Structure formats: C-alpha cells, structure tokens
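Onboarding guide, step 5: your first structure request.
Type a short instruction followed by the sequence, for example:

Predict the 3D structure of this protein.
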Amino acid sequence: MPAFPGIPLMALVAILYKVFTGNLSTLTLVVLLLITLISILIDYFSGLLGAKYAGANGKSILLGMAGLILFIAFFPPFGAIIGLFAGILAGELIFKKEYKQAIKTASAGVITSLFGMMLNLFLAFVFLTIFIINGISNI
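The system replies with structure tokens like these:
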C-alpha cells in the first residue's frame, strides 16, 4: 500500500545494514534497490495502467491519480483504492457520461491495483529472502 512503504522501508534497512556492518555485497544491494524501484512503480502505476487499458481517457487517469493521493491522506490504508476508483469513475462520468463504461473502467483500475499489491507482496518475500541469504551468509 502506498501509505505504508514496505519495500522502500526494507531498502532503507538494507542500506543501513550495509553501512554499519558491511555484511552485504554491493551487488546484492543493487539488486535489492532494483526490486525497490520496481515495487514503487507497481504501487503507483498498476491501477492507472489497468484503467487506461480498459479505455479511460487521460483526464480520468489524472483524476484517478489525484483521488489516490487525496484519499490515502484521509482514509489510510484503503484510501488509495477508494480514491483511485472514485477519481476514475468521476472522470469517466464527467468526460464520457457512460455509466456502464465508467464502472468498468474504474473497476479495472481497482482490480489491477489489487493485482499490483499482490505482486508487491511477492516482491517483498523475494527481497527478504535475498537479504537474509546474502546478509547472514556473510557474517
């Protein structure tokens, strides 16, 4: 969830571990930082790309992004999903005025956002496994 940056926080721990112990190779740290970058991109773009693929126009995508940011500030941890859906739905209703298509497009945004969260959970397990195997094996 964007409100709780799990993998970026894990990356910070890995960096601090490297700095203070030196027990993590530079290559491992680079791999972990790449996983972090991929995770951040998935967090912020999975729902928007899903909505775009379902036919959302650019203004609806911007409203979805605004809704994601606004709602996450006021309704954590589920605000991102609610805000994304509400923003895309509002945009589609304002700009296209087709209710069924608006629901379909907003739902696609939410579904791909949830898929992105599951993918990030998988990446977190990969990150943790790499960190433990490479960090502890160097002690």
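Each response can be followed by summary notes, for example: The chain has five helices and no strands.
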